[in-house]
Amino acid sequence: MPPNGLPLLLAAAAALAWTSTFVWLGALRHHRFATFGFDLGIYDQATWLLAHGHLDGMITVRGLRVFGHHVNPVLFAYAPAYRLGAGVEVLLVTQVVAQAAAALVCFAIGVERLGDRRLALGPALALLANPTWQWLTWEFFHPEVLAGTALLGAWWAALHRRWGWFAGAVVLAVACREDVALATAVLGLVVAGRGERRVGLATTAASLGWYLVATRVILVWGNGTGPFYETYFTDLGDGPGAVLRTVLTRPWEPLGLAVRPDRLAYLGRMLGPFAFLPVAGPVGLAPAAPALVVNLLSSFPYTRELTYHYQALVVPALAIATVEAVARLRRRGRPVAAATAVVAVLAAAPATSVAWGPSPLGTRFRTGIWPLEADPRQPARERAVRLVPAAAPVSATYTFVPHLTHRRAVYEFPNPWRTVNWGVRGEGAHDPRTVRWLVADRSTLRPGDRALLERLLARSFRVVQDRDGIVVARRR
Known about the structure:
Number of helices: 21
Strand order of the largest sheet: 4-3-5-7-6
Structural class: mainly alpha
């Protein structure tokens, strides 16, 4: 084997091992009833609805139309497989494979920018070892994770001036979720700044145009409000207009918010796995700027957690910025410093993976995040799912929802009797009398919901199974 072929072989082997590990863990988690209605059940039901021609169908897990939750045209790509009977496993496999492929694209970017395959291997392996990139597989499926890989592909295509591939990657990215268009708009500015003004400005204009159509037309049609997540900035105002006025007239307020201790800690957790090198390659971080601003300024604390999809565009941009930082050192004639920087990344990435990540090498692996031990209640759970007829309207507790979503009406209990995480503001609750079946795990219910369940069993439903705390009941 040529010496230059070994880094590519190592990158491919690492990607294959990563894929095998997280497909196995994700499938295990789902089959042992440890996945949730939010958000897996939402995307699974949405894809099933699209596959069966219900373009304006209601995601009853969420109380919103298919494109009232988010605008995810990429789900159409899954429709043929779902029409043939596929389910959440295809979502899992495609996302994990895409994430592993991101490391190979990162390697290709590194080869182009660094001119040395050995150095290029460092950022690629760091991406696979990144704890957040791993946690996204635990969350199982979010279309914007696919967008992260597409953005890497677009960056690579721009470096090689392969504009057909670039356009395809950008289209794929924005098809994953409406706000990804903000990232591709910034990417267009980067391309324009590198001398390709026509392509870059066209990309920015098209991205912003799609963002406006998706958020001001499609989402409004789907939920009557638009992008409801724009209300997640209560520290700066009670709506997009108020937030913008605050930013323009009192810029010290968002700045002060962004440097609060919890925000700085968030930045440290994101930069640490890459040995803080991305700060020296800011051009690579540019496409993630909109997501970073949202995460830093949001009053919604989950946007600053390592474990959730809010980082789906941030992590790939950090990998690009790492490559750009090393390339900057090489351009300045500092090869030893560049090699040292890559070694630092190769030390930081596995260290943070062990400390914070969910992989078999991580300290959190055996803390219950993965159902590694078989639960004696598994037969009762499996029988509960089998008892519910295929098309029957059902309300189920959250661990059962992803197993019952291939139907028009599946609710996450206590919906629709009590609206929880429903619609934008709880509007448009469905008639509880339409629910024909109940499936509940008593151990996951809060006291109020447990009391509701018992009242329903006493008055309106006949128990079909009550075993190991797993209850199945049919309307009388």
